[in-house]
């Protein structure tokens, strides 16, 4: 059954951490919706390899309309985490125990939403101390799946196992 996945993204996202999971999800028959401040904005990856035309502005979407959430890494999550509307969006997925998929610096958005305490997670190494301080059980693994449905990975090198796991998680 096809699922609808929200993707929170803004400028300076890690190019492959957006393009690769989105491609894997769409190839599996799911719909992805890019969400930023305003629909129609064009956001660019930090390596200049990818650009995304935003589908919806955060004020136009209801998290109840989505089955899962993808948060790519790069500098994008750090930029988005200062905006309460994005934090509220993330909190909905945590409260409803809908799947959240995040990689690299993506957990920064979850830290500010205060939804990591007690969860098994991984991230890029520089975010590890922030996750630990926020109460997460951080481990240095290519893929960590928490019982809440949260799936995390560290870096672009982990994308093959990350993509496989997020597609499998949506088969339920």
UniProtKB/TrEMBL annotation:
One family name in Pfam for this protein: DJ-1_PfpI
PROSITE patterns: PEPTIDASE_C56_PFPI (PS51276)
Organism superkingdom: Bacteria
Keywords, in A-Z order: Glutamine amidotransferase, Transferase
Keyword set includes Nucleotide-binding: no
GO molecular function: transferase activity
Tagged with keyword Transferase: yes
Domain DJ-1/PfpI intervals: 3-168
Classification via NCBIfam families: PfpI
Family: Belongs to the peptidase C56 family.
Protein name per Swiss-Prot or TrEMBL: Type 1 glutamine amidotransferase
